[in-house]
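F.,

This is the one I mentioned.
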């Protein structure tokens, strides 16, 4: 057990392969990710803010949504498929951050109109859109690049990079000086991944999108940053990766274990809140010291 973890909730040092059909409900995972923020200590960093997060029904998005609420923000959660996971996230927010509002929006970031509708609903019901977290993602592993179907490539790009573009375009008319966009990138966008070539390409695009949008929005006082996670234990892993890659997932990092969603929350809070006031266009790596794409 890590000495940083609370005694009642050790973080697992090794994960085992488990079957999980796509899209992968977190509520049905045998090895539950640590995303309930039992170890997180809030400090009122986002008081009075409204955050809209995509892909926030489970995994990293769930942890960040709970963390933002614990920091004082009202949150809107955009999700695509798992009603069960979304309701569980809303319940956790009610438990961990009493009094904070949580709006669930079932939608699809691949459609620009749906993105505009989600932003408008967030603004109308919660009163503002101060923070946008682009986190929704799709991936599927293929052993041979020439066997990747065109439909899979399109779905990956439509979700992972075009969805980020549409959400940012929809949110910006409502955003003001001091507001922030935080994108979820990936170690795969920096180091590549042999089995996730189209996914890695979208993550590299997200990193460039982050830097470019930050340059344009600096004059408006809106910061744009990116968190690049390494191997994090989320429903996406057992639902989309080959069993051999799930077994011992994360063991090739300097810390010798996968990260847990909760361990990313501090990075998102930093980039979304006042402590990150001079950070923009940054790719913040939270990888456990994973330096290559092997493994």
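My design for it:
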């Amino acid at each position: 057990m890590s000495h940083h973890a609370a005694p009642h909730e050790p973080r697992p040092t090794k994960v085992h392969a488990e079957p999980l059909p796509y899209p992968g409900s977190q509520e049905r995972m045998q090895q539950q990710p640590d995303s309930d923020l039992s170890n997180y200590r809030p400090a009122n960093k986002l008081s009075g803010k409204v955050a809209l997060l995509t892909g926030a029904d489970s995994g990293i998005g769930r942890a960040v949504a709970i963390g933002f609420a614990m920091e004082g923000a009202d949150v809107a959660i955009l999700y695509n498929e798992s009603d069960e996971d979304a309701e569980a996230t809303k319940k956790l927010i009610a438990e961990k951050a009493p009094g904070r509002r949580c709006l669930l929006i079932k939608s699809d970031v691949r459609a620009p109109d749906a993105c505009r509708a989600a932003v408008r609903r967030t603004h109308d019901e919660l009163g503002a859109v101060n923070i946008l977290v682009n986190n929704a993602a799709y991936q599927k592993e293929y052993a041979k690049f020439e066997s990747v179907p065109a439909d899979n490539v399109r779905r990956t790009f439509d979700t992972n990079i075009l969805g980020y573009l549409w959400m940012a375009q929809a949110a910006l008319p409502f955003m003001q000086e001091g507001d922030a966009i935080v994108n979820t990138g990936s170690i795969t966008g920096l180091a590549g991944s042999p089995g996730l070539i189209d996914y890695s390409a979208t993550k590299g695009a997200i990193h460039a999108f982050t830097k470019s949008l930050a340059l344009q929005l600096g004059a408006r006082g809106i910061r744009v940053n990116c968190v690049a996670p390494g191997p994090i234990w989320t429903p996406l892993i057992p639902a989309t990766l080959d069993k051999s890659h799930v077994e011992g997932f994360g063991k090739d990092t300097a810390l010798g274990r996968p990260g847990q969603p909760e361990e990313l929350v501090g990075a998102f809070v930093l980039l979304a809140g006042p402590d990150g006031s001079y950070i923009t266009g940054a790719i913040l790596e939270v990888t456990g010291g994973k330096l290559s794409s092997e493994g």
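The beta strands are 50-54, 74-79, 102-106, 131-134, 180-184, 223-229, 283-286.

Talk soon.
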